[in-house]
Amino acid sequence: MADNKVRKRQKGDANGTHQAGMKNQLKDPVQWGRAWEVDWFSLMSVVLLLCFAPFIVFFFIMACDQYQCSITHPLLDLYNGDATLLSIWNKAPSFSWAAAKIYAAWVTFQVVLYMGVPDFLHKILPGYVGGVQDGALTPAGLINKYEVNGLQCWIITHALWLANSHYFHWFSPTIIIDHWIPLLWCTNILGYAVSTFAFIKAYLFPTNPEDCKFTGNIFYNYMMGIEFNPRIGKWFDFKLFFNGRPGIVAWTLINLSYAAKQQELYGYVTNSMILVNVLQAIYVLDFFWNEAWYLKTIDICHDHFGWYLGWGDCVWLPFLYTLQGLYLVYNPVQLSTPHATSILILGLVGYYIFRSTNHQKDLFRRTEGNCKIWGKKPTFIECSYRSADGAIHKSKLMTSGFWGVSRHMNYTGDLMGSLAYCLACGGQHLLPYFYIVYMTILLVHRCIRDEHRCSSKYGKDWNGYTTLVPYRLLPNIF
């Protein structure tokens, strides 16, 4: 859902560095954004997602609330007549004003941090890039400016959370899970509200009309978005705010609330819960440390802002990316030391591959190939492409380092980390493994989508590149 996703953590289409005239690469319908036209398969997929994605989220959260996180028991109860859809619905907590106040305070606080607290960490943290940064060139030829302060917002938020837990006691550290299903209704309200607002805004007062795409199909326009970078005023960017704040900042707080609930219920926190908290916190911190780099990724450079990102960032990400911690509240798992150690190693190795692969790409781009990868000067293939104005440009695609092992080795590392989260929950139930299944589908689809764009862009040169690096994710397999 929220391509952030991945998390959020969506990467660009090629590993190379462009050499000339990028400001001329404008308005090419093949090279940027979502589709101009919609086929019947795409339309049916959009309608199905709009109809069923909210119920998928509700089903998983309800299964934990009523069935100890079993996803088969509610289906069997329905099949055997022991439950009805109405009885399951009536047992689930409903919208509450207490949850509405909590969520409104949360979103408001994140807006204040995003808009009102300029980043100062880049002045004191070596290697961290924050403050005002340029985004990528939009199809209309604009370069938007962003206030990169996500790491600062994350630190301030968590410092206040910990101060409250240990000193002030304004609210219980279990406040999130205690209102979890009522909060689901609140996030849905915001997700649909912001998606609908962005949809209407694109017709009535778009930020930049030249960066809009209309297909003529209202469902596709609503889901995939019309505006490229919708904004309110100069600085409030919908994509950057809703992808990182309030969703990803909340991710680690949600996990902390799960851990606090485990402590409250059982008197201890399991090592599996600690593993999930640590590994996912590394993931989140990596995102915010590299937030400036995120401005050059697919979410910002190619995707439009519609229900897919708006609702996905508000609902899908915080509720389904945290399923492992929720599962462990209802089914505490204490792993053996060898088992826990192996899962930790898998997660850390996955993170190392993910981060190193992206670092190699970034270094190669910044130096235009004048660097060393694994102690050697990187090899590459030089590609040419034609921009919309007819000009010919050159681009280098790296074929060494992790980029010589497979064309998307960063995705491979991402999947290794995702699998580690799931394995920490043991093997008694399927629900915690939804995340690795979803991420596999998402990243394989993204591989295909990325490479379709690159094939259209580079033509025969892309064929030469794929000959040198024949595998997408796993050497000798795929």
Automatic annotation (TrEMBL):
GO MF annotation: an example: 7-dehydrocholesterol reductase activity
Comp. bias (Basic residues): 1-10
Gene Ontology cellular component list: endoplasmic reticulum membrane
Residues spanning the membrane: 40-61, 265-285, 305-323, 335-354, 418-444
UniProt name for this protein: 7-dehydrocholesterol reductase
Gene3D superfamilies attached to this UniProt entry: 1.20.120.1630
Pathway connected to this protein: Steroid biosynthesis; cholesterol biosynthesis
Annotated compartments: Endoplasmic reticulum membrane
Domain of life: Eukaryota
Residue ranges, annotated region (Disordered): 1-21
Function (record text): Catalyzes the last step of the cholesterol synthesis pathway, which transforms cholesta-5,7-dien-3beta-ol (7-dehydrocholesterol,7-DHC) into cholesterol by reducing the C7-C8 double bond of its sterol core. Can also metabolize cholesta-5,7,24-trien-3beta-ol (7-dehydrodemosterol, 7-DHD) to desmosterol, which is then metabolized by the Delta(24)-sterol reductase (DHCR24) to cholesterol.
Keyword field: Cholesterol biosynthesis, Cholesterol metabolism, Endoplasmic reticulum, Lipid biosynthesis, Lipid metabolism, Membrane, NADP, Oxidoreductase, Steroid biosynthesis, Steroid metabolism, Sterol biosynthesis, Sterol metabolism, Transmembrane, Transmembrane helix
Lineage: Eukaryota, Metazoa, Chordata, Craniata, Vertebrata
Major location category of this protein: endoplasmic reticulum
Family that this chain belongs to: Belongs to the ERG4/ERG24 family.
A GO biological process held by the record: cholesterol biosynthetic process
Enzyme Commission number: 1.3.1.21
Family matches, as InterPro entries: ERG24_DHCR-like, Sterol_reductase_CS
